[in-house]
Amino acid sequence: MADNKAKSTKPVNKTPPKSPSDPAKDRAAKRLSYDSNSSHEGAMAGEISALEEAFRKFAIHGDTRATGKEMHGKNWSKLCKDCHVIDGKNVTITDVDIVFSKIKGKSSRTITFEQFKEALQELSKKRFKDKSDEEAVQEIYKLIEGKAPIISGVTKAISSPTVSRLTDTSKFTGSHKERFDPSGKGKGKAGREDLVDASGYVSGYKHAGTYDHKVQGSK
């Protein structure tokens, strides 16, 4: 009898059974979470990529041997100027130089991309004083992302009365005038050489070629 009672005694499972879940809803929830994380990471990667691309373009500017991984002080100053980080009020060229000297190593003449971001963080506090530290950094990033060095020294066409007078064919005189027709188009060889006029009309006669029309009209 004792053995039967011992066999019949079993531990009771008091854990309530799990409610059946919908597999379709679980899959949808997982997919939504994955898409959300992927889009967030993609946005961050795109932002960093744009900033790194700008850093690389300015880092190699004017130096054919540069790899784009490090930036000299001269190019750092140009970046701050071309991208309007320097506004002449909150951030000046002196501020830019001071931050560069502070961030770079003592024996180094360049800064890496990570040091570049540290320098921007320093300047963002001065450039955007009315914003939080995080917002200020994002704003200064926007000034730089997608930008490239501005090429200076390109010769531009200058318009002046002297140039206009020399290029206005309607004001030409003498042999120069004969090289162009009334519309300003060059006559080519006819304007440079004295060609024999066999039309029978006096040179320069305005009504040349109208005789035949008059004779035919009178018949």
TrEMBL record:
Q: Where is this region: Disordered?
A: 1-41, 167-193
Per the record, the major location class is cytoplasm
- Record field: compositional bias (Basic and acidic residues): 23-33, 175-193
A GO cellular component annotated for this chain's UniProt record is:
mitochondrion
One Gene Ontology BP term is: astral microtubule organization
Q: Give a yes or no for keyword Heme in this entry.
A: yes
Q: Which UniProt keywords apply?
A: Cytoplasm, Heme, Iron, Metal-binding
Q: Name one GO molecular function term.
A: heme binding
Q: Does the keyword Translocase apply?
A: no
The places in or outside the cell where this protein is found are:
Cytoplasm
* UniProt xrefs under Gene3D superfamilies: EF-hand
Residue stretches making up the Cytochrome c domain? 46-148
Q: Give the family this protein belongs to, as stated in its UniProt record.
A: Belongs to the TPPP family.
Q: Which PANTHER family match?
A: P25 ALPHA-RELATED, TUBULIN POLYMERIZATION-PROMOTING PROTEIN
State the protein's name: Tubulin polymerization promoting protein
Q: Which organism is it from?
A: Aquila chrysaetos chrysaetos
The gene for this chain is TPPP
